[in-house]
Amino acid sequence: METPEPATEQFETHRPLLLGxxxxxxxxxxxxxxxxxxxxLRWSATDRTGIREPRAFLITVASRLALxxxxxxxxxREAYTGPWLPEPVATDALGPLDxxxxxxxxxxxxxxxxxxxxxxxxxxxxxxxxFQLPYGEIARIxxxxxxxxxxxHRRAGRRLAAGRDRFELAEDAxxxxxxxxxxxxxNRDLAGLAELLTEDVVAWNDGGGKVRAALRPVEGREHVVAxxxxxxxxxxxxxxxxxxxxxxxxxALAVDGIDQVVTIDVWDGRIDGVYAVLNPDKLxxxxx
Length: 288
Hints:
This protein has 11 helices and 6 strands. The protein has 288 residues and is of the alpha+beta class. The protein has 2 domains: 6-163, Butyryl-CoA Dehydrogenase, subunit A, domain 3; 171-282, Nuclear Transport Factor 2, Chain: A (Roll).
């Protein structure tokens, strides 16, 4: 068995962190893997004798690569068929999650909300919130000023405030609420289903033009109940299974033979957002 080169071995110790960083910035693990691979190639080709802090160097490289990719990805996403949702990813593939900030910034609803930010705002928010980098370091990475970074962080925080700092359920309670939602839908218990939802709940469906899915968000409790009831009445549901996605339980199931992953966002103990990813291109990083 060959011994890995020191450069490769050193890079691999940081790979999970870099994947988690790039995913937070891009909302796609496929794109994140491309970024990390390119970061590895640059690391391998760099004279590393003067690099005193490999972690800082690699975060800089990965951040800049992801930012470049995000700029071009926004154009593609604007032409996407129906709502664009982030790629759900098995929790154990998202790198370290040993702080509340790391978990919060990788939560599915948060990654989705970050789509409303400009690429620089998203980068500042992730680097500051998840990785606790000082503003001076972030300014160096983004080639801007500390003052600008502080302003972008404040703007990002305000824009995300409506979707963050929510009442979070313990993991088992989150899973139970998700299962109750599915059971109420399958049993056509419309009153019970409505009771689980906030008044302003929104259901998002991402088929990407590859499979049949709602082309617009379904907004409001009454409309979401009617939408779910219509699905149950028209299509058979396959047996569901719980999966651990983006740090929270989710449901993997098939509706009319179409695989999908369903996650929820919670507000004050009720479901405030339902995210169904049906696009088969986005389901490759979900495991049981």
